[in-house]
Amino acid sequence: MEILWFLIALCMLAAVIGPVVLRRRAGGIRLVAPGSPDAADPADYGFVRQELLDVRMPGPDQDLEDVLEVVQRSQDWRAAAQLLAGTPKEGEVRWQRVQAFAGAASLELAQRPGEGGRWLRAWRAESPKDAGGAQVHAEFLVQQAWRTSTPGTDDFRIILEEARTVCGEAALLAPGDPVPYITELAVARGLAYPEPEFDQLWAKILDRAPDHMGAHLAALSYHSEKWHGSREAADAFAAAAAARAPQGSLLAALPLFAVYEHLPEVNLVRGFYQSAVVTRAMEGALYAVHAARPDDPMLAHVRHLLILFLVRAERWSEAMNQLRHVDGHVGALPWTHGPDPAADYAVYRALAVAGYEANGGSPATLPG
């Protein structure tokens, strides 16, 4: 359905999409005006309006959302420190919360230069030995480097060198916690650590959290062709992790992330997303999602990436099934690779709704 790919390109260029509809008619698929009786509207499915999508996290974490609201309203860091102090070192939740606090401070600073995020500065100044504050500070610096500077420039290197220093401080404050080392993986990628140095860093993470999905995602980027490895190296890294993944682990979905890391910028091959390689990676991710615990904090990450692939493969019903689980939060790949995650997500959501309805689906037929 070639016009669908035209719509994707058009929507991505515009970075925003209104309600669209795909209809089976003699004239093929067509775009209709918002408000038309024929228009497919994501709101009909209870999906959140684009302007209300939460870009800070991939999925719901009510405790985190409540604390973020308090911190951003009061500019007092103590609630954040208390939440992190009560979050176990084991598992993925602490890493995600550190990322969310850092991302919130970074967004505040972007919106109010010189003023936003002052609660994080106060946290570090008033409690320099707090491990949570050091971890958020290190992640904040990493995000600032990637958001505000160009890789390879002096500014980029200076910020990441500072981040590396703060990662070291955070590691000393919380022995056994993998988060400072996971944060340093992004530093390693940006500063082009030699492979032996990267391997030493990776070994520290494996000693502390061998099945950490977030750590594997960060390491995968280092091994990718666009950074310091190759397509073969990334595929081998992902396949090895998936092969040794314990039952119920989302590491089985890692090969799909490896495919994403190496998507061609321009795809001229019709049916690429129905190819054997892509289909196998999608099926592995779908299996991982089915086998994972419902409360696995990394589940939303896999679902978000599946949405992109399922839409491009025109597997509309399966894409809608993933959407109903994650809608409302868009702080995950692939949306965070762009400047407006909410808009990019809304593009794919609208296309999924349109494709679903073009093939006979409706709000009444979508499983609850």
Order of helices and strands: HHHHHHHHHHHHHHHH
How many strands?
0
Structural class: mainly alpha
Helix % is 55-70%
Share of β-strand residues: under 5%
- Summed up, the helix count is 16
Distance, first to last CA = 28 Å
Mean pLDDT across the residues is: 87
Largest sheet: none
Large-scale geometry: globular
Could you describe the 3D structure shown?
The structure is a single chain. The protein is mainly alpha-helical and 368 residues long. 59% of the residues lie in helices and 0% in strands. It contains 16 helices and no strands. The radius of gyration is 21 Å and the shape is globular. It starts with a helix and ends in a 10-residue tail after the last helix.
Task: Give a short synopsis of this structure.
This protein has helices at residues 2-14, 62-74, 78-85, 93-111, 118-126, 131-148, 154-173, 179-190, 195-208, 213-223, 231-243, 254-261, 276-291, 299-312, 316-326, 341-358.
Which descriptors apply to this entry?
single chain; 368 residues; mainly alpha; 59% helix; 0% strand; globular; disordered N terminus
How would you summarize the topology of this molecule?
Layout: H1 2-14, H2 62-74, H3 78-85, H4 93-111, H5 118-126, H6 131-148, H7 154-173, H8 179-190, H9 195-208, H10 213-223, H11 231-243, H12 254-261, H13 276-291, H14 299-312, H15 316-326, H16 341-358
Helix pairs in contact: 1-16, 2-3, 4-6, 5-6, 6-7, 6-8, 7-8, 8-9, 8-10, 10-11, 10-12, 11-12, 12-13, 13-14, 14-15, 15-16
